[in-house]
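I am writing to request your help with a piece of structural work I have in hand. I set the record out below, with my sincere thanks for your time.
___
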Amino acid sequence: MTLHVAFLGGAGAIGASSIAVGGPDGWVVVDAGMQPGEEGGAPRLPRFDLLAGAPVAAIVVTHAHGDHCGALPLLAAQAPHAPIYASMATQRLLPLMLGDALAHMERTHAAGGPPPVWTRRDLEQALARVRPLHPGMLTIVPGAPRTALRATSSGHIVGALSVGVRTPAGAVVVSGDIGAPRQRTAPAPQPPPFVGAALLVLEATYGDRAAADRRAEEQRLEADVAACLARGGHALIPAFALGRAQEALCILHAAARRGDLPRGAPIYLDGLAQRVAAVYARRPADVHPALAPLLGDARADPFRAPPTGALRSDAQRRAALQGPPAVFIAGSGMLHGGAAAVYADALLDDPRSGIFLVGHVTAASPGAALLAAADGDGMVWRAGRLRRVRCQVARYALSAHADADALVAYARAAAPQQTALVHGEDAARAALAQRLRASGMAVILPDDGAVWTPAPRPALRAAAR
């Protein structure tokens, strides 16, 4: 019996994550992500073609971010008999996130872009097969009696898991995205699901940096938002609909309750983030222990108690922009589009207002261009024309990803025979690999399409295309 691990996507970069663990019962595929195409182009997908030759025994989704679940309906259609596992919170988030992804693909196609890579029927059939994977429990895969799954909370967002796959040929741990400590919405990361596995597949997003002082970053955001509102402006927080939006809302809602924001200033949650917040509000068992007692409290619940409000239409957005000072929390987090782009275009010319970014910003994104303009000549391209940036622009280190120290600690706790670093840029993977090797660990840096096997000795070979 031979163990194989195929890196289908998201190995040498962030996006389209998918790892397949092959044992005597077939493949267990952990995650099926998708990376949206640039400027309406085709999305980037995992190499599902590498699964040919053996059945897919099961599919596991670590969490509901699109780069980990966006291609799930496509994989599910390719493997129609495989059960799909996720945490109960992720099970409730998947319809929201994948439904939004389909709507985006349909809009792109209507504007002349490529057709959706999967259909509504694919989505409905996939969602009907999702079953809960309970953290801490050993789950035997139906129809694959020699294959077992065990998950622990990874602390990245609500419902996020690390996953262990145990086969007679050996065990593999896939970390998923490991969470940053001291978040307000997600619980703290738990120890790896297995110790001493043949391979640990470890994310390396922030493998080259130390975390900022989170409370100091929160205080800086609170102070900047308060000053913005006090001078009569609006504050826009572009945020990913799942995770960062709810985190930002909890930070500012707590500040408002303490009296650290101007009294009566509304905090509006816009778009998909509202529906995600509703799932959080109904899952007290899955959120951070300090947040759970607040849910349902008429004064303290950050998702439903004043000053939190919701905006659902263009007319409501226009009215709010013309109204008294307010906070808008809206997607997309990097200003690629969505309601956040609408607010940003309205606020650029207002020196009283501010745009405050709280999540990951890629170098080629509109959010990065705005930050560069604010630090440079003050000019930015928006909607096909050059605009002057007169509003305040700032960024805060409120990531949901573990830093290098936490990633090293996770790897040491897992004590694997070998570690593969994925989900990170070249510099981050190289820096983390250096630290792990210095502590005596064997490390590989696979590319997409590579296949790892421990027999006769740990090796990495190129996959046939």
